[in-house]
Amino acid sequence: MNGAGPNGQSMSILYVCHGHPRYAKGGGELAAWRLFQAFEAEGAAFLAAAPSLAVMPPGCEVMSAGPRQWLIKPSLSPLQHGTEVSLQDGGALHQALADLRPELVHLHHYVHVGIDLVHALRRWFPQAGFLFTLHEYWGPCAYEGRLLRRSGELCAGPEPEVCVECVGPEQRVDLAIRQLRLQRMFAAIDHLLSPSLFLKQRYEEWGLDPHRISVVENLPAPAPASVESGANAGSDALVLGYFGQVNPWKGLELILQAVQRARRRCGQLSVQLHGCGPADLDPSTSPYPELAGRLAALVEQLGPEAVQLCGRYDSDQLADRMAGVDAVLMASTWFENAPMVIQEAFQHGRPVLAPRLGGMAEKVQHELSGLLFAPGDPADLARTIERCIDEVDLLPGLQAQVLRMPLKGARSLEQHRRLYARFRGSSAAAEPSLAEWEPALLEDLRQNFEPLGANCELGFLMGRLGIQRSSLFRWLFTPLASLEKVLAEGLERFFSEPVAVTDPVMAADMVVDQRTGIFFHAGELRQQLEQAGNNSAALVQVRAGEACRDQRGKYRYLVEKFLASVPVASTLHVFSDFHRELNEAAMLRIHSRLRDLGKPLGSTLLFVQPADGSTEVNSVRCLGDGLQLAAIRRFAPGEHADQIDLEAWISLLSLSRQLSS
C-alpha cells in the first residue's frame, strides 16, 4: 500500500509510537506501523519506546531498530509521563534524528515515550505539522487509560476523589501536575485523529475542542485476496473464535462461562482461543495468576472438544485462522475504542459478537454486521450464542451482509493522506487578534449572526468570533438548491432519508439526506448506514433506530430555534457561495422564502461570493430591502474549511452592519 498521493507527491513523516510491533502487537502499535509502511517509500521514519531497559545496550539511550527506525529508553513515570532520554540539542536522540526534515510528525502516544519528547520534537522540527492519533483514554484516565476503576467498575470520567481512589491519595499533587502537562502538550498539537466517535466524545467531555478532532479509522492490514465462507456452512456445528490477549479486561472468563451455558443446548458448539496458549493459563508464568487459575479450571471443565488453545499468531496466519471460525467473539469489560479485531473480522467476512459497550457498539451494527449483548453478562452472551444455533438463517445472513460491506483500507489511507496534505509543513500565518476590532460589532455578531450554508466555513467563523451557541446550518454542507428546497417547505421533514457518504473527500462522519441533498455530521448513524449498505430492510431498521431518532430530535430543536430567529429584525442571515452557484434569481427566491417565514422588511440577508476581478475585494453592495452582495478576498479551501480568512470576513461583516444601520 503506497502512501503517495494521486499526483505522485510524497510526504516526509516521522511517526512516534509507544511501542515497536517487533516487540508488541497491540492495536496502537500496528496502527502506527501500517502507516509507516504505507509512507516508508516516501521517506517516513519510525521512533518508538523500547519494551524494557533490557532491550537496550547498557548505557544506551537510543538504538537503531532498522532503516530510519529508532528505539529509545521507555518512560518510567506512569503519571507524569516523563521522557527518559536526553532532549538537549546535540544529545544522542537529537543526533539520531539530525538528518530528518519531516513535514509532519504523527504521534500515536505519549505513554512510554514521554510528554517532554513532544516539545523537543516541536523545537527540533519547527516547520513540521503535528498530528496526534488518540488511543485509549489516557488523557482523562490516569489509571491505566481504560476508564476502568481499580474495582473493575466502568468510569464515567475523571473526578478528583475517584481518581485518587485508583492511583492512591499520595498522588494528589502528581495528578494535578499531570493535568497541566497534558493540557500543554495537547495545545502543541495541530490536529487530532480519533479512530471512533465514542473516543472523540470522551475527549470532548474532558475538554478538547471537538473541531480539532477528526474521526478516522486506523489503517487496517491489507485485505485478503479471497474470503472463505463460514467454517461449518451447512452443518449443525458452530465454531466461535476469540482473537486477542489474555488479561482481566478482555472478558475471556465471561466467554468461557457463556460457552459452558450454551453447550447445554448445543453440544457441537466450540470456541477457539487465538492468542491464548497453555502458558497463559499457568499461574506460575502468567502476569495474572488468579485469572489464569480460574481460566484453566474452566478450560478443564469444558474439555478439548469445547475449547481449543490455538496460541499466539502473526498477521500472515490470520486468514487461515479466521477461515476456521464462523464468527468472532469478544467480551471486553472496558470501553474499547476501535478494536482492530473487528476490522480484521469484517475483512475476512466474519460477523462479530460483542458487548453493547463503547467503540464495540459503534463498530458492530446489531443484526447487520454482528450481534450485541449486555456487557459483563455471561447469560446474555449465552442467549446470543444460542440464537446463532436456533435461528438457522441468522449467521449466514450476517456473514452475507458483512461480505457486502465496503472495505475501509483505501478510505482510511486517503483520509490520512488528506489530513497530511492539510497540515504538512509550516503553520499558517497568525490570525489577527479580535481585540483589534470594535467590541460592539463582535457583540452584535455573537447575538445575531445566523449562517445559511454552503459549507462548514461559516461554522468555523462562528468559533473564531466566539459564538458558542448552536445553529441549524452551522455545521451542515448545504448546496444552494437544497437551501431553497427546505426553506420552501418551511423546514418540515428537514432530516428524513439519510444515507452514508462514502466519498473520501467528505468527513468520515457524514451522512446525506437523499431527499434534500444536505450533508450532516452524524458519526454513529453513518457507521450504521454504511453497514446497512444497499439492503433496503436494513436501511429501514437503521432509520427507525435510536441513532436516527436522536438526529431527528436534534434537528427538530434546531429548526425551531432557526424559525424563532427569522422574525427578529436584527438577525443577519449569511450564505457563502463557495460553489459559485449564485445568481440574481436565486438570491431573490431565497429572500422571498425567508420573508414567507417572517423575516421583516429591511432585515439583512448577506450573500458572499469570491472576488473575481470585476468586483472590489472585500466589498459589500446593497441590492435593496436588506439584500446585500459581498465579494470576499478568498474562501477557505474546500477540504480545509477551518482555514478561513478571518480578517476578510470581519471586514465584510463590519461593512454589512454599517450599511444596515
Characterise the protein shown here:
The protein is of the alpha/beta class and 661 residues long. It folds into 3 domains: 13-215, Rossmann fold (3-Layer(aba) Sandwich); 238-404, Rossmann fold; 434-481 and 549-660, Rossmann fold. The chain has 22 helices and 22 strands. Strands 3-4-2-1-5-6-7-8 form an 8-stranded mixed beta sheet, sandwiched between helices. A 6-stranded parallel beta sheet has the order 11-10-9-12-13-14, sandwiched between helices. Strands 15-19-20-22-21 form a 5-stranded mixed beta sheet. Strand 17 and strand 18 form a beta hairpin. Helix 7 (252-262) runs parallel beside helix 8 (289-302) and helix 18 (523-532) packs antiparallel against helix 19 (536-543). The chain is globular. This is Possible glycosyltransferase. Residues 26-218 form the Glycosyltransferase subfamily 4-like N-terminal domain.
CATH superfamily of the largest domain: Glycogen Phosphorylase B
End-to-end Cα distance? 59 Å
Shape: globular
Low-confidence stretches: 4-8
Q: Describe the biggest sheet?
A: 8 strands, mixed
Number of helical segments with 4 or more residues? 22
CATH topology of the largest domain: Rossmann fold
What's the multimeric state? Answer: single chain
Q: How much helix is in the residues?
A: 25-40%
Q: What strand order characterises the main sheet? A: 3-4-2-1-5-6-7-8
The total of beta strands comes to 22
Instruction: Quote the average pLDDT.
Output: 90
CATH hierarchy: architecture of the largest domain:
3-Layer(aba) Sandwich
What would you report as the Rg, rounded to the nearest angstrom?
Answer: 27 Å
User: Which class best fits the helix and strand makeup?
Assistant: alpha/beta
CATH class of the largest domain: Alpha Beta
Kindly estimate the percentage of residues that lie in beta strands according to DSSP. 15-25%
- Total domain units: 3
